[in-house]
Amino acid sequence: PGRSVDPTGAGDVFGAGFVLGTLRGWPLRQRLAFANLVAALSVQYIGGSLAAPGWGDIIDWLDRTQAEAAAGSARAAQLAAAYGFIADVLPATGRLSVRRARATIARASDADARRP
């Protein structure tokens, strides 16, 4: 999907993706493909849980891949076909404004607010 920045948490994201695929009843090949996709998306950002992709990130990746396929990219067409199965888990309510979790602890503003 993109350039690797930080592998922190990629294994956990892989595991979560695999569990989601298992709960959906996907064949092993699809569970592994989805887990690899979400892990690959997670390493493009810094941080563990904060780098885990949300549905919006997955929708954006699939949209970009399908657009590249429509523009004639054979590799993108291959990926779009291989990952077409994920469409059944993507939210049908349109674009999501929140893509990733936000830090809730250890922020400088929070620490300053607690000082007497």
Folded structure, characterized:
The chain is an all-alpha fold and 116 residues long. It has 5 helices and no strands. The protein has helices at residues 10-24, 28-42, 55-70, 74-82, 108-113. Helix 1 (10-24) packs antiparallel against helix 2 (28-42) and helix 3 packs across helix 4 (74-82). It starts with 9 loop residues before the first helix and ends with a helix. The model has no long low-confidence stretch (mean pLDDT 82).
Biggest sheet features: none
Structural class: mainly alpha
Give the helix tally: 5
The gyration radius over C-alpha positions equals 17 Å
Distance between the termini: 47 Å
Unreliable residue runs: none
List the helices and strands and how they pair.
Layout: H1 10-24, H2 28-42, H3 55-70, H4 74-82, H5 108-113
Helix pairs in contact: 1-2, 3-4
Question: What is the compact description of this entry?
Answer:
With 116 residues, the protein is mostly helical. The chain contains 5 helices and no strands.
List keywords for this structure.
single chain, 116 residues, mainly alpha, 5 helices
